[in-house]
Amino acid sequence: MIRLADPLLPHKARELLTALAQLALFCDGEGLPGKAEVWLSREAIERFIAVGCPHVRESTRGNYRSRLLRLHEIVLGGVCRTGKPAKLSASVPNSPYSRTELADLWGWASGQPTEELRWGCKTLMALGLGVGLDSPEVIPLRVHDVRRTSNGGGPVVVATRGARKRDILCRRPWEGVLASAADRLDTTGTAQYLFRPNCFSRGTNTVTNFLDRTKPSSEVPRLVMGRLRSTWLVELFEERLPITVIVAAAGVDTLHGLSRILPFLSAVPADEAARLLRGGQ
Fold first, then answer.
1. Are 256 and 65 in contact (CB under 8 A)?
2. From edge to edge, which strands make up the β-sheet containing 156-159?
3. In sequence order, which residues have a C-beta less than 8 Å from that of residue 234 and are 6 or more positions away?
4. Most buried residue, 28, 78, 168, 215, by CB count within 10 Å?
5. What is the pairing mode between strands 167-169 and 156-159?
6. 90, 32 in Cβ contact below 8 A?
7. Which of 228, 232, 226 is nearest to 51 (CA)?
8. Rounded-to-integer distance, Cα 99 and Cα 102, Å
9. 3 state DSSP class of 190
């Protein structure tokens, strides 16, 4: 792909390769198939820029975007002659899970052959479906970043790390799972990792490498953090939460990163839409 872009100087080739390597690591962590038409899609590039490189400066993200869009144009083709952006199709791997799929996933997680695999899968599901975290946010999370606001049965709050640092209230159905995942680990005198606590060599593929060790099932969809986060977002939109609340909880500063969710939202009945638009009683 780099050769197709035909950079004029060696440093240009290195710049393109650096951006492509970062995109590849992110897409692999999201469980996206290793195909140019997937990794270099505008949707994948924009998601990478929005959430996949939180620890770099704004100017660096801008450079990544321009270089990746250059590769997109050369490898996949540019915009049409009218100047309108090419239409983006919904990314299948990032489509939300159905209720049936979630039930199957939970059964699959509970049936893993070791306790480490069982709790690892359940922890990922709780972090994705409960607080909408993606892989880069899961990896650095510590046990003490998960806390209950009161003794026993209070709400569970997760404090994320990195550039998108924020406190997120866990969704009620996943409070118990997330609290149990934290409570089962001994944190005496240590700052243990919540996910894979015994893994001290942590890179961008920490989640992917763990999932590669799980026992697969042909009848159950793959566990993908991007799809868990999409499911979480769709639930928030469907429950009519204020957009400002969703943006803050998702850790984004624009609505662009949430636009990919729109195709998966239920249509509002005409009479309800009319009532909401009119306002008042």
1. no
2. 146-148, 156-159, 167-169
3. 96, 261, 264, 265
4. 168
5. antiparallel
6. no
7. 226
8. 5
9. coil
pTM of the shown model: 0.68
Which residue reads 């140019």 in tokens? 36
Per-residue tokens: 102: 């979630």
SS3 159: strand
Per-block mean pLDDT, blocks of 10 residues, the chain (281 long)? 51 77 85 83 84 77 83 68 42 76 96 96 97 94 88 86 91 94 75 89 89 93 93 94 91 76 86 84 60
Q: Which value, to the nearest 10 degrees, does the dihedral of the CA atoms of residues 159, 161, 166, 170 take?
A: -40
Query: Which are the contacts of 80, defined by CB distance < 8 A and separation ≥ 6?
Result: 86
Which one-letter DSSP state was computed for residue 113? S
With vertex at residue 154, the alpha carbon angle to CA 153 and CA 160, rounded to the nearest 5 degrees, is 125
Is 167 in a helix, a strand, or coil?
Answer: strand
Q: Are 71 and 1 in contact (CB under 8 A)?
A: yes
Judge contact between 148 and 154, C-beta under 8 A: yes
Neighbours of 104 (CB within 10 A): 16
User: How far is Cα 171 from Cα 129, in angstroms, rounded to an integer?
Assistant: 8
For the chain, helix, strand, coil in percent to 5 are 55, 5, 40
- CA-CA distances (angstroms) from residue 255 to 15, 50, 137, 225, 243? 29, 10, 20, 20, 9
Distance from first CA to last CA of the chain, Å, rounded?
A: 58
Distance CA 156, CA 168 (A): 9
Structural contact between residues 231 and 167, judged by C-beta atoms closer than 8 angstroms: no
- CB burial of 61-71 (b: ≥16 within 10 Å; e: otherwise) equals beebeebbbbb
